[in-house]
Amino acid sequence: xxxxxxxxxxxxxxxxxxxxxxxxxxxxxxxxxxxxxxxxxxxxxxxxxxxxxxxxxxxxxxxxxxxxxxxxxxxxxxxxxxxxxxxxxxxxxxxxxxxxxxxxxxxxxxxxxxxxxxxxxxxxxxxxxxxxxxxxxxxxxxxxxxxxxxxxxxxxxxxxxxxxxxxxxxxxxxxxxxxxxx
Length: 182
Hints:
SH3 type barrels
């Protein structure tokens, strides 16, 4: 599916508040959620889990979307379950979707899960933005054992394929490891 077709379908899904489902080339399985905002290269998704509950916000590249279903095949079931539980539509957060740099800067108040899937599809880096320049940024990372690194690592904006804002795992890291060193 051409990027312009994907962009049109994502925008339509956002405007009609459809639940979408799609695959990406970097992982097995699919993403399901509400499209909250769409830019030329990136879009904001409110991901929902297997129980159709809000999981986390994800910023994803439009070019990576494969097999987009809008509305998702079982949208009426998903929405009925959410309505009967009293779930609300996830609120739209403000994210500048212009490019990787603008995305990182606009969500920098949050703990970030940054993916560089072209280079390393099975890993991510979780941490807080410390500093940036025109080509990259420093991230102070928190390890799987909820221990903060002593020094930040530098990453290039160009390699970023996805950014997630805290889901349950990341919130557990913060609960145990704290908000980070001062």
